[in-house]
Fold each of these.
Amino acid sequence: MVIKIEGLDFAYGAGKQSVPVLKNINVTIQKGMITAIIGQTGSGKSTLVQQLNALLKPTKGTVQIGEHVVTNKTKEKELAPIRAEVGMVFQFPESQLFAPTVLEDVMYGPKNFGATDEEAKKAAKTALKRVGFDATLYEQSPFNLSGGQMRRVALAGVLAMNPQTMVFDEPAAGLDPQGQEELLNLLKSLRDEGKTVVLISHQMDQVLALADRVLVLKDGEIAADEPVDQLFSRPQSWFAEQHLDLPETIAFQKQLEEKGFVFDGLCKTVPDLAKAIKKQLDPTKIQTLGSTISENGEANHE
Amino acid sequence: MTDAITIKNLTYSYPEQGQLFDNFSLSIQEGEWLSIVGHNGSGKSTLAKLILGLLDFDEGEIRVFGQKLQLETLAAIRSQVGMVFQNPDNQFVGATVADDVAFGLENRQVPSEEMPAMIEAALKQVGMAAYADREPHTLSGGQKQRVALASILALQPKVIILDEATAMLDPEGKQAVLQTLKQLKERYQSKLTLIMITHDMEEAALADRVAVIDDGRLVENEAPRALFLKGQELAALGLALPFAMALQKDLAIDQPVYRTKQELATWLSKLKA
Ligand SMILES: Nc1ncnc2c1ncn2[C@@H]1O[C@H](COP(=O)(O)OP(=O)(O)OP(=O)(O)O)[C@@H](O)[C@H]1O
Ligand SMILES: Nc1ncnc2c1ncn2[C@@H]1O[C@H](COP(=O)(O)OP(=O)(O)OP(=O)(O)O)[C@@H](O)[C@H]1O
Ligand SMILES: [Mg+2]
Ligand SMILES: [Mg+2]
């Protein structure tokens, strides 16, 4: 299922109170890929993704979600099937939790789409396991959980519904480092299963590691829409204009380039970067300097 | 040196779950910058809520600037400690952004003629002055976090506790907040104590000391320069290394030495063929 946005404008509220947010958006979200959406705080990322499952309707223009076309005039009752096809994990997970227990919360989606109790429970447990949620907490209220635990429940809620397209709004926020690593693997495996994944993230390293394509929003407009390698090959000054950072590995690579190191292509991971650096070091210098380096990176000459 | 916060032999369990803290002790010196890290559900937010007296502990004691935390001292202690909550929505009380900042000031009986200037200064500090009249719930995630921070900064508390207060900020916003905190530390020196709960190891590394909590136990408690040399132990605790240390580990060419990104770049340029 492809999602196609054409000529979209969006404003919150109407008349004098209206706050225009998105302007002239034309993008296509390809199926079976991970599309990342990045941009400064308030640039319109969360507003944009809420058009993808018709939680918000365009003020102007159209959003085509598979066979459904959503415009300003689309009736609420026509939107229900879209919600089954496009699942969404919100920026603040609390806002989507509601059931008396964790298990019931995650079972709600499948049941709502016609699964039996038994099937829903099975789907819920599989999903909770997949996000590394502690099984001893299944009967707890989802509100009596830590921030990262709530995040996992919200993620599981969408996984259990098994929609074709899944949208994640800052899913790593609140997860511990191990949880972030697991999330990365989860999103990759969803793509491998043929799902369409949309990811909003402020963590450029995550975007670099995961995304096939990246949309950059600036003040509600698309500033870039291109494959991830092409995007991160842009100069640092361009990222500064968007008020964005380069991923750590690439920023460090650039820092070393200024000191005379040479790399062919982008180093996407820390091990890759380490390998590329090591090739350029002088073994004899490592021998003599290696173990006698003081804390500030200066050699100790005794 | 006096303690800003002393926690001694603390015991606490939520009614719904088993024992979380059992005989937990930790002190934080006046003027110190402490990071608290640990896996999800390890007890960080709970500890912060206990310090603020939002939860009642079962045994042990908590002192804030020597004053024992109990019903009679609750108000006095809360006026010295400001906390930015993990979810800003749980913190908002005002109908507008400006009201929200004003609310805390009113609670501290700031004269009303002084308030507008203080509100504006606090919102400016986080780049949100233009949003003073907006309803907090209509803000974007990062904007909410900025306002939540402004509401606490306006109060100029002696102890600031930030519970993952930068998790939703964009890279620039995060840098700006950390810069603001550094400046405040410089200005107030020992008069400002900072406790930062975070999953971001770069951020944790800015502190004087990092406390690692694992299921309610204090398992590490030392300066970042020492802590981040313990790659294996940290991985076992579900933690990561700051970028420069992770890279250095993969380079595996010398004895472990703590280096920042800058230091690592300088050192590598010396080893270049
Ligand atoms: N309900 C609303 N009413 C009016 N304005 C709103 C509403 N919701 C969001 N906005 C505004 O729309 C703009 C875009 O918000 P959005 O939440 O899409 O940003 P974002 O890119 O997701 O930012 P962040 O990274 O901080 O989450 C912001 O300036 C925000 O203040
Ligand atoms: N209101 C509550 N009622 C019952 N149990 C709770 C409540 N809040 C938290 N807990 C439990 O207490 C433990 C510690 O939670 P806490 O929120 O302190 O963790 P945390 O270290 O802040 O985690 P995170 O990094 O995910 O925010 C968790 O197992 C959690 O499920
Ligand atoms: Mg957002
Ligand atoms: Mg917490």
Amino acid sequence: MKMTGAQALVKSLEAEGVEILFGIPGGVLLPVFDALYRSPIRKVLTRHEQGAAHMADGYARATGRVGVCMATSGPGATNLVTGIANAYMDSIPLVAITGQVATNLIGTDAFQEADTTGITMPIVKHNYLVKDPRDIPDVVQEAFYLARTGRPGPVLIDLPVDVSRGELNYRRSERVDLPGYKPTYKGHRRQIKLAAQAILSARKPILFVGGGVITSNATEEVRALAEEEHIYVTHTLMGKGAFPETHPLSIGMLGMHGTRTANYVMCETDLIIGVGVRFDDRVTGKLSEFAPNARVIHIDIDPAEIGKNVEAHIPIVGDAKTVLKELLAVLRELKKGHDPVDRREWNAQIEEWKARYPYNYDRSGPGLKPQFVVEKLYELTKGEAIICTEVGQNQMWAAQFYKVERPRQFITSGGLGTMGFGFPAAIGAQLGRPGELVIDIAGDGSFLMNSQELATAVLEGTPVKVAILNNGYLGMVRQWQQLFYNRTYSCSCLHRERRCPDFAALARAYGAMGITVTDPEQVEGAILDALNAECPVVIDFQVEPEENVYPMVAPGAPLYDMIGDLLYPVEKVHPEKAEEPFL
Amino acid sequence: MKKGVEMKHTLSVLVENKPGVLARVAELFARRGFNIDSLAVGTTERPDISRMTIVVDVEGKSLEQVRKQLHKLINVIEIVDLDPEESVSRELVLVKIKVTPETRSEVIEIVDIFRGNIVDVSRESVIVEVTGSSRKLEAFEDLVRVYGIKELVRTGKVALPRGK
Ligand SMILES: Cc1ncc(C[n+]2csc(CCOP(=O)(O)OP(=O)(O)O)c2C)c(N)n1
Ligand SMILES: [Mg+2]
């Protein structure tokens, strides 16, 4: 069938089952938006391209489908960059489509020209600069295939305007043919057997799960492994939801702001079963002192993750679900006629830590504590909301005090730590999951980075709720300055005497509901009002300005060296512990 | 020097012959902080496939990372870490050597020993072409340095595994 490149693009998107896309048009994208006009694909016009990328990302995280965003050449494309990098770091399937100047102008510094494929090369799984309209169907098909298979990630398609306007005979290939791309899904049999033997003989095992478990839909298998072998489970920030946090075998999050229990367990364990994790610096602490007694089983679909940071004694490359299924079968077989190892002491030790070291904060003061707000949100939503977060203290309190039960329920910028992610991600999640309650737990600094998307939220009718833990500070920065830079609060105070902005008024300016909360007594009522509202709501919780997130493993310190909770007062902090003071 | 030689690995990388592949490989090395000693790209017997011969100065865990990260590039089809014993490698150097009527014949003699060719002659210099292993080229350079090397260019190593 004869059609234009732009029409072929739209037809290809439809063939991929795309139901929604996020973006902003511009000169070189006009042919594409013209072709989209009559397509049943829902077009969400955002107020910033970064918002479009994060919405597509939030949609992908909430649904497991590929998110699609679009931007024009030059500034439109560069505005997408943060969003693409964010998806890359967290392995989120995204297809970003950018307009480009006409092929004969490429390289001439034409109006709104930017080398988009060059700029994005280090932050995409793959990208394409399409030079011939006839390549469009295959490129789109490949892009979606690459984005969602193997270790998922963002794929970018750069489309010059003359290619969109050119003509072709549309035909969709039977399947994609990529000679250099063959992800491994099935784990090596012998390795799986070794892993099973290691598990059966371990005295102090721990199951360590990450975002890969969620990507692979392996939560049932993780649960079966934990329950059948009675192994406790810790998770990364990205792994929140990979195993129910209220399960008796859950010991909570690991790492910088993880539970004491999880951090102590890592120091003592003799076997780590790592599934879909990448052992990054936020969970290992000082690498040379990480899990000194442990053998490591590392299951991941990306071979490059295995042995990158932590040596794996039993590496298994494969899809988490497929490998765990096989591992469970082997375990069940091997266990017959096998006396189980006595782990009573280990289990008792973990239970003792769990009882002794729950997340805690000082509840005595008269002021409004951010942790209290999150606890109340948890209670009043019965733990069932989809939680998005911004970045900073708000993110960590959300992770600590909002326990999640299921995968795709906690949406956060883990790898890149992008302020401004949570709100647009919440809109994207809400559009993907219309029936669910979606809440962005935000910081006052982060929210302003993409607050313009209030317009999108209101006009698209997405009733997302934003709970701003408004401390007047770039709180996490202030916390590090307090602990490691002698309380020199250089450029971390956002506002003090004069509250700025008035977040409730800002919300109302867009047609959303705005509520201001200054007193603990008002928290419950405000949350209930927000939950009952059918429009977007922003609640400005004016919390204690100098509250800190604890416990904390100082950057570069070993995991056992946690500071600053009721048992280990802040006075014990040594600034020199911060070997790598980065944020 | 000996130790340095041992650290070097020659990776023979088959890639799809598509625009931007070289940029992807170069970007990857830069971004991940891997050092490239030399890199040579050329066509193969198949028009849709090119071969990159990359000499890297890494060992063990880092070499493993280089290989795995390279493999993640969609356009990379195959990577072989060539065993020096089981492969043949060549490099070509062009050297512009300063000559005088007195030194000219000495230089020509050295070139002959190395089975090189003189490809350009002028009153003050000659350009010599020598092919061989990297070692041989280094030995040649050492010998002619006394006459004065005006300019020099090496192609970087290309290599193939030996027939079985
Ligand atoms: C885009 C971006 N810029 C800067 C940072 C560095 N940073 C990390 S946390 C933080 C403070 C966040 O402030 P706020 O949103 O108010 O959250 P709080 O920590 O106060 O809860 C900053 C500036 C970042 N992560 N992302
Ligand atoms: Mg703040």
